[in-house]
Amino acid sequence: MADKYDVIVVGAGPGGVTCGALLAKWGLKTLVVDKNSQVGGKAMTLSKSGFRYEYYPIWPCPGAESQIHAALKVLGIEDRVELIQPDPFGLMHYETPSGEIGSMIMRGPGHPLDPQDLFKLLGVGDADTEEVLRLFGEVALMAPHDQDLLDDVSTIEFLDRYDIPRSVYSFFATLQSEGTIEVPSDIACASEVVKIFQQLVTGGSGCYPAGGLGAMYEAIAGAAQANGSDILLETRVDRIAVQNGRVGGVFTEKGAFYAPIVVSNAGIQPTVLKLVGEEHFDKSYVNYVGDLVPSLGFAGARYILSKPVLEYPVYLYFSDNTVSTTDHIMKAKSGQMPEQIYVFISATSLCPGRAPPGKQLVHTGLSCPADTKVDPKTWLDKVEAEVARIWPDVVKHIEESEYYGSAHISAISRDSVVPGAGGECIGLGQIVGQCGKHKPSAKAPISGLFYVGADAGSTGFFANNLAVASGMNVAKMVLQYFKTHPR
Ligand SMILES: Cc1cc2nc3c(=O)[nH]c(=O)nc-3n(C[C@H](O)[C@H](O)[C@H](O)COP(=O)(O)OP(=O)(O)OC[C@H]3O[C@@H](n4cnc5c(N)ncnc54)[C@H](O)[C@@H]3O)c2cc1C
């Protein structure tokens, strides 16, 4: 293995591995370093006791023509990653104020959401239909310029422009804020919500790589290696070397590696405040980075069931009272959980062959602060009570349970360097002031240093898709920089 490269990518999460693979394909001598034993970051797939599953519950989205499809195509490996599309892929449950739980089937790509089915589930009466259709129509057809005008508007402020029933309000505010971008709806950026909703409407949901998301990132890593990239796993980068305002490489526990370009997938805050060190940046930039707000973390449970209980890959539950705001999160942190919560549950049935015959692995959980010091128990107790109420059969067949919280998420993704951050599900929160035109630049104010992944380099996508989009955009920026900055 060499010790000199054109570019070093710190982190092989969805953004890092995509970026590294593209740069290798375009001829740059590339090293990708990750502290984990496999690629994929928070989206890695594990194999254990005959199961093959993601660390975390996965909402497969969007269904077609996503950034992920585009990246596989550019890398020329679209034939090597089988994207399966279970249809139907899930059930959406809505609980009425009188306590009845209705359900609506969610179809795969090619079967966009039918407003009539949704109206039935949400009890939209004739008197409200016109206004609800106005909301759906405006969101689904909003032009890019108008979307950009929502960069400074929260989801709740946007919804308040419409005189809609509470059920429709909650559908948007719960599912498109906490349920999709993992941020409270009072700060969720409306331009992000609208863009992602449009992708869902046009592309549908439910597209998923056979073998798991991690298998797809392994295929991308394979493409990187086939193009000459080195991939160094189980190696933590301790420091990104900077001298005279330029990066020079990285220091790891396995030695130093040199390159005039370093792309960090380790999160913008850990990169600036720890790996490079604040002494290399202007005070104002350090303050700006320190004040960035993470997405929410997650308190999750994995259950091994003695028999397959859930028929579909994913299930959602919400009610009029599941809209989560910053105030709810703060109250929950002090022990006051809301009475009703949004619940997401997913099963290994997403992809055949992912569980031993006769068994099923089920994920569930609830958003909680990204703070690695928060004990997830309060959230887990609540979510387990809700699972028992809504899906009693699941609880009856639990053979084994595993639990995790934000500290665990941090351990396999980014370090916690700012109080309250580290265990974020997505990365930087897609909130007002941090999205669209306000998204941090992927080019750091140090020569040769870039950020990649959910934190920078793309906006207006959902999680894995966001990180992969960043991988593609940042790879282009790096290539341009490489060509214009001869060594
Ligand atoms: C509970 C949960 C549920 C989720 N559900 C979904 C979902 O349903 N659908 C969806 O699309 N997405 C989902 N996501 C989010 C998705 O996984 C992330 O948005 C995505 O993984 C972000 O990719 P990334 O490239 O930004 O970085 P990450 O995935 O965070 O990867 C960063 C990589 O950098 C490495 N790294 C960091 N620091 C160092 C260092 N110092 N040295 C070496 N390596 C380092 C890490 O080990 C890691 O591999 C979920 C996440 C969680 C936690």
Short summary of the structure?
The protein has 487 residues and is of the alpha/beta class. The protein has helices at residues 14-25, 67-75, 115-122, 126-141, 144-148, 155-159, 166-181, 190-203, 213-226, 268-276, 283-290, 326-333, 377-390, 392-396, 406-412, 463-484, and strands at residues 7-10, 30-33, 45-48, 51-54, 83-84, 90-95, 101-106, 208-209, 230-232, 237-243, 246-252, 255-258, 261-264, 297-305, 314-319, 343-347, 360-368, 398-404, 449-451.
Topology:
Layout: E1 7-10, H1 14-25, E2 30-33, E3 45-48, E4 51-54, H2 67-75, E5 83-84, E6 90-95, E7 101-106, H3 115-122, H4 126-141, H5 144-148, H6 155-159, H7 166-181, H8 190-203, E8 208-209, H9 213-226, E9 230-232, E10 237-243, E11 246-252, E12 255-258, E13 261-264, H10 268-276, H11 283-290, E14 297-305, E15 314-319, H12 326-333, E16 343-347, E17 360-368, H13 377-390, H14 392-396, E18 398-404, H15 406-412, E19 449-451, H16 463-484
Parallel strand pairs: 1-2, 1-13, 2-9, 6-15, 13-19
Antiparallel strand pairs: 3-4, 5-8, 6-7, 10-11, 11-12, 14-17, 14-18, 15-16, 16-17
Helix pairs in contact: 1-9, 1-16, 7-8
Bound molecules: flavin-adenine dinucleotide.
